[in-house]
Design a protein that fits this description.
Structural class: mainly beta
Number of domains: 2
Strand content: over 45%
Helix content: under 10%
Radius of gyration: 21 Å
Shape: globular
Number of strands: 25
Order of helices and strands: HEEEEEEEEEEEEEEEEEEEEEEEEE
Length: 316
Amino acid sequence: MKFFSFRFTRAQILATNLIFGFLLFASFLTVNAQTTTFAQFLENNGSQDFVFTNNGSSANFATIVNGSSVSFRYQNIAGLDSSLQGFQDAHLTISPVDSNTTIPAFDNSGTLTQPFQAFKVQIIRDLPTAPGVGTGTRRNLLTAVIQPIVDAPDLAGSGNSATFQATTPDHIVTFSSDFLVFAATTSRNMALSFSSVTPTLAINGNFLQSFTAAATGTFASNPPPTPYIPTAAPVSVGGRVLTSDGRGLRNAQVLLVEADGTVHRAMTSSFGYYHFEGISSGQNVTLSVVSKRYSYNPMVIALDDSLGDLDFYGNE
């Protein structure tokens, strides 16, 4: 008996994924005709980077360690900087903490459905853009946070394929990005299409049985988001200082150093929050934490707008 192995180039993988991606777009836009797709991702390697885990009393969905290597692109966005056009190398991450569920799976006439209490997808650019393009770390291409309103968001399918879809107004769909502004959007939705589900979908106890899969995805809104344009007004900076196990650290000193050397100091609250007001935008600032017990890596931020999610995670 002979066994054959095949090696595919990245271009071939992307071409194959594009076919599945466009099929997903067509279905997605038919159901959600009022929205316009503004972003898409394709796995670079087509590997089993997406992992559903049945823990018995709960279940979660996550990506492999360090996330899935993807090619990401924006589309249908007027005025986008040239460095953000076309496919960009990025890593997509789904944290098991952000996608944990205790809601039982069920069989809906042959379609196996696994509801989630919440779901979060982050797509981070491998390298930051040039200063002046974007805000924050200049790497967050897109973060999507899904929460229930009418129904719980769910993953549904059969055999070796499945889809995760979320749409307003059934769900709270929140998009954020270092490069886009979503303030004017009134309808938002997303779809992840999973292929090569291994083993095939089945219910084991209260949840789907554990499986791995490959994925593509689309994100849409009405109207489409607009490019982020830096402002010159004073802005605020904030976030949390956390211990190595994710608890807020109180009474830690946070330093913010402006480009001209001006130093600002803030102490964290009982839950680890810190905040700075009236910082001039349009400059790079350095944030660092002083703590007796934990060490923290400093951040260098291109400060073009107010930022409230600059979190520090401690190292013992």
